[in-house]
Amino acid sequence: MAHFNKDPAIYNLLAGFRDESALKDELKKLGLRLRPRVVTPREQKPGQPGQPGQIAFDDRGNAIYEWQDQSLTEDGEAGERARNKALAHPGLAIVDDEVPANAPIRSNPKGLRVGYNPYESGVLARKGPPKKRDLRELSKWMEAKKNAKRDGQEE
Has this prediction a pTM greater than 0.70? Predict the structure, then answer.
């Protein structure tokens, strides 16, 4: 029988089929086909100098890492330290990219047009509040306009 993911619904569906040909026929009716997973093993290269191991495949086709040294396969803290040391690269280092506490927050002019991205948010530029109108001046202007209109009609 073919290997499927661990979804219980698929196993319930497959439980009614005793042989693979009945399953293939049923899948053909649904417009699906079952392809066997073929994994060809790579040639076993002798360990390259400077590499602690190589990628290999198990019997189901899953990628696994085979360590060259037996001490690297040990469990526990000693094995963990040995694996970390074997995989460490002298040219690489972990650096924290912390922004200084007093650094200004940079602006994000595209944030309101494109959308909000929390990793590149910055300061979103907003339009300021609308200019307040002086209602007394507006009232005087409207009254003056009304009076001008009345004066213009009477003459």
Answer: no
